[in-house]
């Protein structure tokens, strides 16, 4: 019996060793909220026996078979007031350019890091069975998959650039609110001219990515990897899987290709930790309920312009509730006594507190998932990226109020907070949404781990690829057929009009000839009489 158990144990250990794979993970974004999402997945892969090499912010440096290349130095670049003000004051297209310039910078920093150089150097013998890339940081990083001849999986903690979806063959629908990058014209039942505007903007968007941004990314990849860079259009178009940090419960539903897989709430804790003593005392004392405000980890409240800070402070002065505010610098002037300020707040523990009534936030996906999990109604002030897109959907579901940042006034903020605080319907709708997001047939981490190992077992999943991704835009959307039919119908109509015109002209001319030929006394008239 003992011998059999020993053999079984040895067999299980050998199976783990045999199935152990080496994975390169590239997520250098120095954003705490985004890295927080990925950590449970990396830890699950490590527990499965896989060796991980991560380009990221250090979190588990002491683990064996777990190498981390530190990219926390990029925080200085992202968390400065100039970067914030650019995103808050420019148009959506200017923000797109700023974001993509930042993406190029992060990619160059990644390739130039000494430890990363050692990985891809021509003389390097490094081998990987899979490459996982945060695709929101730029297509150039996907060229590592080509360099190491490994399958590629894209991942993002939020929505992805719609052009990445486009390269995978996914639909871009300008007449439907499915594109977060066209947030200002999103909505159902749009009038014709607004849908026309969206369509033209979509064409311009595809043009910019195809002929401006992608060539820039290709140039970066070739600068560092030379012939080992591959063609980025092919590399991304042949991506095995794309993991998107989105839930169907709070996003707009749209058709998708099968190799795009959704997940959500990986980082949400099942058992919140105890609150700090001073914070717990403040929240426990808010027996009538309290309001919590945080703008996330990318945009800090302290980076808001003075006039916007003044609006928030004036609004808080007019509210009778206790307010917890995440403010990253010294306490701003004229803060009322009902406001408790902290530079860092354990957000999930606060959202789990029974006295919370309203969460005022910027619309970030991770904060949204946490609020839904703990059933906390929302007041959203979207600032950048897909935040407006998210809050629009939450507003439609009756769990949030949306405010416009550019036109924000203290009266609007006060009215929105009072409405959500006092109207029980918001809470009831959020409880239902919370039940929906928790009701799953399988844990998302288990699902993603299975797909990752499936890709490695078969060295890719080409059977899940949509062949229509190879078609140019005009073929994929049948615009060439529509144009041909439109021109053909136009030509037929023009020919018919020409024939009809000629027939009418022939009939009228013949009638005039008959009239002039047989009119009595016409030939007996003098020239002067005929012309008079």
TrEMBL record:
InterPro entries: UDP-glycosyltransferase, UDP_glucos_trans. It comes from the Eukaryota. It holds the Pfam family UDPGT. CDD domains: GT1_Gtf-like (cd03784). Gene3D superfamilies: Glycogen Phosphorylase B. Residues 1-20 form the signal peptide. The chain crosses the membrane at residues 481-508. The keyword Transferase applies. Keywords: Glycosyltransferase, Membrane, Signal, Transferase, Transmembrane, Transmembrane helix. The keyword Isomerase does not apply. GO terms for molecular function: UDP-glycosyltransferase activity. Belongs to the UDP-glycosyltransferase family. This is UDP-glucuronosyltransferase 2B7-like. It comes from Dinoponera quadriceps (South American ant).
